[in-house]
Write a structure and sequence with these properties.
- Chain B: Keywords: Glycoprotein, Signal.
- Chain B: InterPro entries: DnaJ-B11-like (IPR051736), DnaJ_C (IPR002939), DnaJ_domain (IPR001623), DnaJ_domain_CS (IPR018253), HSP40/DnaJ_pept-bd (IPR008971), J_dom_sf (IPR036869).
- Chain B: This is DnaJ homolog subfamily B member 11.
- Chain B: One of its GO terms (cellular component) is endoplasmic reticulum lumen.
- Chain B: GO terms for molecular function: misfolded protein binding; unfolded protein binding.
- The structure holds two protein chains of two kinds.
- By secondary structure, chain A is mostly beta strands.
- In chain A, strands 1, 2, 3, 4, 5, 6, 7, 8, 9, 10, 11 and 12 form a twelve-stranded antiparallel sheet that branches.
- Chain A starts with a helix and ends in a 13-residue tail after the last strand.
- In chain A, 11% of the residues lie in helices and 34% in strands.
- The longest helix of chain A is centred in the N-terminal third of the chain and has 13 residues.
- By secondary structure, chain B is an alpha+beta fold.
- Chain B has eight helices and eleven strands.
- In chain B, a hairpin with a 2-residue loop joins strand 6 and strand 7.
- Chain B is elongated.
- The chains are: A mainly beta, B alpha+beta.
- At the A-B interface, helix 1 and strand 12 of A face helix 4, strand 1, strand 2 and strand 3 of B.
C-alpha cells in the first residue's frame, strides 16, 4: 500500500516514453515482478500474522467476541459469542501461526493455512471440541489456554479463494481437529450477556459461516525475504 | 504555506543524500519530538521549523518526490505539499501525539476514556541490532457527528411523588441528558512503529488516541509491546550476545581460523593458535547489541567452544600413534566434582 509501490509503477510506464534501451526496460520489468506479492496487490491488502483484528459475520452482522465469563454448561470454559457493537476491545483477536515461529510477523496468511486466533484481552485461543453448544446444540466454541498457549484443538484452517487472505474477502474458518466451520445462526443469550449471539461450530459450509476482517491493527506484508517466498 | 524557498531537506533532517528510507524515518521521528511547537513555546520560529521538517519528510520519504527533488530542487516538485504536517506526525505518534515522552495524559476523571489496546509486536534480534520501522494499518471506529440527538449521561435519580396529604412515595427513575448524536464510522490510517536499536523485551511504543473510541469521551491508546523472539544462533543477555561453536578434536588441539556472521551480516573473525579446551570462552568486546540509551556503546559477544570427539572407535594403530604423539602418562584423578550443587 506504500506510495513507493505506486510511484515505481508510474516511473516504469513513463520510462517507455523515449526509445529506452530494450535491456533497461526489461531490467525494470524484472525488478517490479520479483519482489513479494505485496507489491502487486491492490485493494485493502492482505491479512498477515501478528495482526490484531475483529471478525465480522457477514450474515448476522456480529463480531467474534470473548470475555471473562464461562459457559454454564458443556465444557465450562470461557465463552465465545457474537456482539453487535463495533467499539468493544474484547472483540480483538490476534492471528498467529500454528506453532512457535510458524508464521513470522508480516507474512501474509495463505488460503488453506492453519492459524490460531488468540483473544487479545484474555490470552486464550479460539477453540472447539466435542461438547454441545448451549442454545442450538451445535458444537461448542470456547476460548482456551493460558497466555496464548492451548493445545492442538486451537488450530483453524482459513478457507478462502485465491492465494492469500485478503482483508476485503469473506472467508471461513474450518477447525483442523473436528472439521466444523465457525458459525453463527442467530440464537441469542439472556442475562448476563443479553443480546449476544451464540457462536458455534457446524459441519456444513454455508452463509452462516462467512467472516470478514473489520477493525484492527494490520501489519503490512514485510518486504524483505527473510521469511522466504514460496511462490517463486 | 509561504513562498517556495530553496530548502535543503537533507540538512533539515540531518541525513546524508544517500540516506535509506529507514534512516529518514528515524531522523524524522527523533526531530519531530524535539521540534514540536508545543515543546518549544518560547521559540518564535518553532512553527516554521516544524513545518520545514514535515515538508522534508513528505518529500524524502516518497521515492518519486525524492527523485524530483534531487534533480530539480524544491521548485521542481510537481504537486504542492499534499498532507498537512499534523497528518505525518500522527503516523508516528497517534492522534494526540503532542503529549510527549510517553507521559500519561492528564487524567480528567470526568472525561470517560475508551479502552487501551496492547499489541504484542514480535521482533527479531536482527531488528534489535540495526533498528527497523514496522508499517501498520490502523482501521478503527471513530465517533462522528450525526444528525439529531441522542440520550447520554443516563443515571438513576430518586423522585419524590405525593400520593396524598402527608403521604409521599420515593421512586427510582432513569434520567438522561440530550447530546448531539454520534455514530461510529470506520477510518483507516498508516502508523509507523519504530523498533529502536537495543530495545528490550516488554518495552512499549504508545500511539495516543489510537485505541478504542468512547462515544461520550476520548479514545483510548494503542500500545505496541516489544516481544523479542528466540534466535537460532545468538542468545541475548542484556546487551551481551552468547553463542556456541563446536570444533573438531584436531582444531581444538592445533588451532583454527573461522568467521561468525553477525546479525547485520558483518563477519567476526576468530583466530586460535593455542589449544582450545571444551567450555573455553572467548570474549569479543563491542560485538554485542547496542545499548538502548546510547547506541554507540555495544555489549560483548561471548563465544563458548565445545569439542566434537571422533565418533568411530580408533584402530589399534591410531591408538598407538596417539600415545606416541602426545607422550602423556595416565592421569586418572578421582575427585568430587559436584561440591554441593
Amino acid at each position: 500500500m506504500g506510495p513507493s509501490c505506486r510511484s515505481s509503477a508510474g516511473a516504469m510506464w513513463s520510462a517507455g516514453r523515449g526509445r529506452a534501451a530494450g535491456p533497461a526496460l526489461v531490467g525494470l520489468l524484472l525488478t517490479l515482478l520479483v519482489p513479494g506479492s505485496g507489491a502487486a496487490k491492490t485493494g485493502a491488502g492482505l491479512v498477515t500474522c501478528g495482526s490484531v483484528l475483529k471478525l465480522f459475520n457477514t450474515q448476522h452482522r456480529v463480531r467474534l467476541h470473548s470475555h471473562d465469563i464461562k459457559y454454564g454448561s458443556g465444557s465450562g470454559q470461557q465463552s465465545v459469542t457474537g456482539v453487535e457493537a463495533s467499539d468493544d476491545a474484547n472483540s480483538y483477536w490476534r492471528i498467529r501461526g500454528g506453532s512457535e515461529g510458524g508464521c513470522p510477523r508480516g507474512s501474509p496468511v495463505r488460503c488453506g493455512q492453519a492459524v490460531r486466533l488468540t483473544h487479545v484481552l484474555t490470552g486464550k485461543n479460539l477453540h472447539t471440541h466435542h461438547f454441545p453448544s448451549p442454545l442450538s446444540n451445535n458444537q461448542e466454541v470456547s476460548a482456551f489456554g493460558e497466555d496464548g498457549e492451548g493445545d492442538d484443538l486451537d488450530l483453524w484452517t482459513v478457507r478462502c479463494s485465491g492465494q492469500h487472505w485478503e482483508r476485503e474477502a469473506a472467508v471461513r474458518f474450518q477447525h483442523v481437529g473436528t472439521s466444523v466451520f465457525l458459525s453463527v445462526t442467530g440464537e441469542q443469550y439472556g442475562s448476563p450477556i443479553r443480546g449476544q449471539h451464540e457462536v458455534h461450530g457446524m459441519s456444513s459450509a454455508n452463509t452462516h459461516n462467512t467472516w470478514k476482517a473489520m477493525e484492527g491493527i494490520f501489519i503490512k506484508p514485510s518486504v524483505d525475504s527473510s521469511a522466504g517466498h514460496d511462490e517463486l | 504555506m509561504g513562498p517556495v524557498s530553496r530548502r535543503d531537506f537533507y540538512k533539515i533532517l540531518g541525513v546524508p543524500r544517500s540516506a535509506s528510507i529507514k534512516d529518514i524515518k528515524k531522523a524524522y521521528r527523533k526531530l519531530a519530538l524535539q521540534l514540536h511547537p508545543d515543546r518549544n513555546p518560547d521559540d518564535p520560529r518553532a512553527q516554521e521549523k516544524f513545518q520545514d521538517l514535515g515538508a522534508a519528510y513528505e518529500v524524502l520519504s516518497d521515492s518519486e518526490k525524492r527523485k524530483q527533488y534531487d534533480t530539480y530542487g524544491e521548485e521542481g516538485l510537481k504537486d504542492g505539499h499534499q498532507s498537512s504536517h499534523g497528518d505525518i506526525f500522527s503516523h508516528f505518534f497517534g492522534d494526540f501525539g503532542f503529549m510527549f515522552g510517553g507521559t500519561p495524559r492528564q487524567q480528567d476523571r470526568n472525561i470517560p476514556r475508551g479502552s487501551d489496546i496492547i499489541v504484542d509486536l514480535e521482533v527479531t534480534l536482527e531488528e534489535v541490532y540495526a533498528g527497523n520501522f514496522v508499517e501498520v494499518v490502523r482501521n478503527k471506529p471513530v465517533a462522528r457527528q450525526a444528525p439529531g440527538k441522542r440520550k447520554c449521561n443516563c443515571r438513576q435519580e430518586m423522585r419524590t411523588t405525593q400520593l396524598g396529604p402527608g403521604r409521599f412515595q420515593m421512586t427510582q427513575e432513569v434520567v438522561c441528558d440530550e447530546c448531539p448524536n454520534v455514530k461510529l464510522v470506520n477510518e483507516e490510517r498508516t502508523l509507523e512503529v519504530e523498533i529502536e536499536p537495543g530495545v528490550r523485551d516488554g518495552m512499549e511504543y504508545p500511539f495516543i488516541g489510537e485505541g478504542e473510541p468512547h462515544v461520550d469521551g476520548e479514545p483510548g491508546d494503542l500500545r505496541f509491546r516489544i516481544k523479542v523472539v528466540k534466535h537460532p544462533i545468538f542468545e541475548r543477555r542484556g546487551d551481551d550476545l552468547y553463542t556456541n561453536v563446536t570444533i573438531s578434536l584436531v582444531e581444538s588441539l592445533v588451532g583454527f581460523d573461522m568467521d561468525i556472521t553477525h546479525l547485520d551480516g558483518h563477519k567476526v573473525h576468530i583466530s586460535r593458535d593455542k589449544i582450545t579446551r571444551p567450555g573455553a570462552k572467548l570474549w569479543k568486546k563491542g560485538e554485542g547489541l547496542p545499548n538502548f540509551d546510547n547506541n554507540n556503546i555495544k555489549g560483548s559477544l561471548i563465544i563458548t567452544f565445545d569439542v566434537d570427539f571422533p565418533k568411530e572407535q580408533l584402530t589399534e594403530e591410531a591408538r598407538e600413534g596417539i600415545k606416541q604423539l602426545l607422550k602423556q602418562g595416565s592421569v586418572q584423578k578421582v575427585y568430587n566434582g559436584l561440591q554441593g550443587y
